[in-house]
Task: inverse folding
């Protein structure tokens, strides 16, 4: 993690999950008031279906920050941390093992954006990628096919990363741009021809095309129904929408949950998933980051033989779909970015984006060595 004392925005760790008993005493049912002092509907729905619990526990425990210096103090439960690290060893210290698995194979790299390439910050619009991280990703792409698969819209994540040598998938993989003529297949009804930012012909795979108008509609109404909740922010990612509650006072989280939940009842073809202090509104279609990895491997011609070792690096719940796909087929592996113990389908871990950068640099060194050694 980049710990720069004077730098804004501050890099954040997420608040501790709150247990049910605490929730119960802090938020007795039926006593939630808006700042306008209007009574809001009872919160039985979001409680009974576990939404609120999921919101509260959707982020790792808070680590104590030394105020003014933004320095993290390690959690007391060092033992749990060490035990967890045995199960999910560091991808840096285990690099030798990873290299052995990759011997005589070609690696393909899949990267999440927020929390992986860019540290988690308060304002999603200020989640930039550092020049050093951008350079590391650019170098990786010289040796290995590299794709970014983000929950953000494809345009937005391209604008943030700004590297033309990568493949981009936005909206949790519901918007994928691939070259027109790779070795792979792309004959799918959801594929259309388009042009990229450089005017090159490309394929666009958009399995949730028909949802664009409804997402626009629901985005507008979510903005409306959350506008009086201080700190709430809604983003439109074209094929999905995000409702952020990171900057909402914790006592108002149930209001966010209830309003979004009630509103979505009118949209049976939309569903809700949880991310890091964010509720993600998505089409009900069977598509996720795992499917996007499979699609990319296929359309880039990387899935036809066992010669490829796909590696996915991500920090969030939505990245678990990709970890699962790689684990299930025993094809490659996931690396979870987390500084606290979390259950995951990944094989390895990295603590934060600064370790991701270190790992990518190590990968480049190894790639260079491999390339040189195969020359002879
Ligand atoms: O799949 P990702 O690239 O990781 O995108 C997931 C969500 O990331 C962004 O939100 C998260 O990062 C923000 C900036 O650090 C943070 O403020 C927020 O609390 C996090 O949830 C993005 O804004 C969302 O739209 C993405 O869905």
Result:
């Amino acid at each position: 993690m980049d710990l720069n004392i004077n730098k804004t925005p501050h890099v954040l760790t997420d608040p501790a999950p709150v247990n049910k008993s605490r929730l119960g005493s802090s938020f007795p049912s039926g006593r939630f008031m808006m700042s306008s002092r209007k009574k809001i509907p009872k919160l039985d729905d979001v409680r009974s279906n576990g939404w609120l619990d999921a919101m509260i526990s959707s982020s790792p425990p808070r680590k104590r920050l030394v105020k003014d210096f933004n320095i993290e103090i390690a959690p007391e439960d060092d033992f749990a941390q060490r035990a967890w690290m045995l199960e999910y060893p560091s991808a840096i210290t285990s690099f030798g093992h990873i290299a052995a698995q990759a011997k005589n194979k070609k690696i393909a790299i899949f990267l999440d954006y927020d929390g992986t390439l860019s540290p988690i910050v308060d304002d999603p619009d200020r989640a930039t990628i550092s020049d050093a991280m951008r350079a590391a990703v650019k170098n990786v792409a010289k040796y290995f096919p590299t794709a970014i698969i983000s929950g953000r819209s494809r345009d937005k994540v391209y604008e943030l990363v700004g590297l033309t040598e990568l493949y981009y998938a936005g909206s949790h993989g519901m918007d994928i741009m691939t070259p027109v003529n790779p070795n792979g297949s792309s004959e799918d009804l959801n594929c259309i021809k388009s042009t990229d930012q450089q005017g090159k012909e490309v394929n666009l795979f958009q399995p949730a095309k028909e949802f664009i108008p409804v997402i626009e509609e629901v985005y507008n109404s979510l903005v409306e129904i959350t506008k009086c909740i201080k700190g709430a922010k809604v983003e439109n990612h074209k094929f999905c929408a995000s409702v952020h509650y990171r900057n909402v006072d914790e006592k108002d989280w149930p209001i966010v949950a209830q309003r979004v939940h009630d509103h979505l009842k009118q949209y049976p073809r939309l569903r809700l998933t949880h991310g890091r202090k964010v509720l993600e509104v998505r089409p009900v279609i069977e598509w996720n980051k795992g499917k996007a990895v499979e699609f990319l491997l296929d359309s880039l011609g990387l899935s036809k033989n066992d010669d490829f070792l796909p590696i996915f690096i991500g920090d969030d719940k939505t990245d678990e779909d990709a970890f699962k796909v790689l684990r299930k087929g025993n094809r490659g592996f996931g690396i979870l970015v987390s500084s606290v113990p979390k259950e995951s389908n990944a094989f390895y871990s990295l603590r934060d984006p600064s370790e991701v950068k270190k790992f990518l640099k190590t990968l480049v060194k190894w790639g260079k060595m491999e390339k040189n050694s195969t020359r002879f």
Confidence is low (pLDDT under 50) at residues 1-9, 15-42, 64-71. The longest strand covers residues 308-314.
